[in-house]
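Per reviewer request, we include the raw input and output of the structure prediction for the construct analysed in the revised manuscript.
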Amino acid sequence: MVALDARSFFGLLARLILAGVFVIAALPKIKDPIAFAAAIEGYRILSGSWAMAAATALPWLELIIAIGLITPWLRRASAWTIAGLLALFIALHLSAWARGLNINCGCFGESTYSPDYLWLILRNLALLLAALYVLILAGRNKSASVRSN
């Protein structure tokens, strides 16, 4: 049995949480890309075929990077991609909030609730911190393995 130190344990926990969140977010959007395209259009940034293209591609990207977080050779690239997506999501929520849009965020598929932008932003900030922790930990593990060679 392999013992984990605290840093490794929290790194694993962060990766599992991020992977779980992104899988749970991706699956309903993969199942219903038309509803997700409507949610994307609600942000008033993309419309028509651009919104549909994003609604088709983004959930698959989310699923791939979630799997990548638990795949050692994809971990760092997946964490960078997740951090970038979370920064984009935070910017989109801030923009929608500032413009007074009352929309379905589309985060986990279709919903009928009004957005709580503060909650969405805080949740994504917490997930972003987890992704950054994974990146920092991956960087330390990489430099430690280089020193040991």
